[in-house]
Amino acid sequence: MSIIDLKLATRGMDSTARWKILKRHVFSFLKHMTLKRFMNFTRAELNRMMKREVLNSYPYILKMESTNICNLRCAYCYDGRRMPVQGERPYGRMTFENFKKLIDEVGLYLFKINLYGFGEPLLFPETLEMIQYASKNNIGIGISSNLNFTDADLPRRIVESGLEVLIFSCHGITQESYSKFMVKGDMSLAMENVKKIVDERKRLRISTPFIDWQYCVTKFNEGEMDLAVAKAKELGVDQIRFLRPFIPPDAENEWFADFFSKHELAGLQRSKAGCAWPYRSAYINYDGGLLPCCQDVRLLGNDFGNVFESGFMNVWNNEKYKSSRRLIANTSVKNSTCNTVCSRCPLIGTAPVENRNNANLTT
Mean pLDDT across the stretch 182-204? Predict the structure, then answer.
C-alpha cells in the first residue's frame, strides 16, 4: 500500500480540476491544523499503511448527511425519490442537537466535514446552525446545493455562516437541458442565487465560500459546455467541473455524452484495488446510522452502528469495522468471513473488474 494515496471522492474531468480540488484539501488541512489533529492524522495514515484492524486513530474527514430530503427530482438520483420500503431508511433530517453532540465527541480530530449526501442541505435552517458550530470549532465545512431557493436573505446567511466550500450542482445552461436532468428545477433562480453569493463575498471582502460549479455531462447538454465556462466566468464562480454522471448502463443513449465512453469507469481511477475510507473517514446518515462510505446508504442493514445511540468511538472499532479492515488488508479472505457492505464492494477487489463501472460513489 502506498505511503501517499491521493484518490479523490470528489471528481474532476481533467488534471487541472483535480489539482484545484487537491489544493482545497491541502488548504483546509493547513488552515485547521492543530497538534492533536496532526497526531491523529499521522496515526490514521500509519494504521492504513500497516493495514490494522483496530485503530488508535479516528477519522480526520467526515461525510455527514443533514437530510436525505430534496426539493428536486434529478434523474437517477436516490432511486427517483421513491418512497422507502421495509428495511430501508425513511426520509428525515438531522437535528442540530445530534450534530453538536457528534462534533463535541470527535471534532478535535477533524479537519473537514462534507455536510451533504442524497438530500438538499439548505432545505432546513438548522444546516446553517451546523455550519456555524463547525466553523466555531475550527473545522472546515462544505455543502453541495442546487440553490433553488426564493429566500432573498439566504445568500447573505450562507456567506456569513463560515461555509468554506459550496458545490453548485447545475447540469445545463439552458432551462430545457437543465430541467431534463434537474427535474422541477429553475435554472434562472439558481444562477441568481450564485450571483448574490458572489456579491456578498465581495461586500464582506472575503473569499469563502469557494464556489465549485459541478456540471454532469450528457449527450443533451454537452453542446453547452463552452457556454457554461463563459457563464461561470460571468458569475464569478471559482471553478467549474465537467463530470461523467453515474448513469446505469441500460439508460437511453441521450444520457451518455460523446465526450465520455459509455463503458468508461465512472470517475474511478484505474489503479489496483484498495480503500482508505475505513481509516480516514466515514459516512453518517441524518439518523446517526454510520457506514464506512457513501455506497448503499438506503439499506438499514448496511449500517455499522448508530453514533447518536452508541457514540462514535464505540462504533469505530466494532466487529463490523474490524472484519471490513481485515478484508481490505487481505482480499483473498473468503467473503463469508465479512458480512458487511464492504464484502460486496468492487473497489476492494472482491468483485470482477468489469463490475467496477457500477460502483456508485456520490460526489
Answer: 96
